[in-house]
What we know:
By secondary structure, this protein is an alpha/beta fold. The chain is 35% helix and 22% strand.
Amino acid sequence: MAILVDAASRVVVQGITGREGSFHTERMLAAGTAVVAGTSPKKAGETVAGVPVFADVAAAVSATGANVAVQFVPAGAARAALLEAAMAGVEVVVCVTEGIPVHDMMVVVAELEGRGVRLVGPNGPGLVSVAGANVGIVPADILTPGPVGVVSRSGTLTYQIVNELTLAGLGQTTVVGMGGDPVHGVGFLECLELFDADPATRAVVMIGEIGGDDEERAAAYIAERLSKPVVAYLAGFSAPPGKTMGHAGAIVSGGRGTAAAKAEALAAAGVPVARRPDEVPGLVARALQSVG
């Protein structure tokens, strides 16, 4: 099984005729994803890699039954694209775009939550059900089916740690790139709850970074409610306070949001925290042994 998407998911690609949209459409198709439609207001009626192009998401949903949308659109167009997808009735929206204004995302998150639409991103690598659907930009060749769920704030660390797991023979159920922006869709709490309810997931890897309090809130949730083991990796132990590091959400203020503070909270919840990506597989293997 998986969370959020699976082999039955039917994907519509917004911006399919652009350079990134067409490239990743072909890659998603090669990974076995059911990409059933694309959108481009000026190129309706054309096809990309055999996928029909519609003028808007509503037309694509009506014609193909698409229930998942993924955007390959510029930051300035992302707000409109995300709202369009939600209003068309899809269940999950994946946004890999970076640089979207915070105010735009505040509007989008509120609207999608009100409609019961799950948002993954923005500023993340996407969403993969390893045995069913690859929605976004995660390379298919680093993935392998198995019992480990992964949720990450970082794109490149997602690739590195998933690859480390695969090389160690530890496959994945679902990989969720929640993104590193301060205002985003599903986060650690939602994913932990979904992974906990997924019978195929036996352990979870959290990939965090400095800034915000997502990891601290996740630690509290794990201590109080989670039944499955969690392993964490945190980036940013050497980050200087007050300096923005990479992602818009990765900023330390005072003593809050530091990697050390997050590691302390997770350790108090019984979560082992790796200091290097290559330590993660060993910690996961031990966690799996502990649950039989």
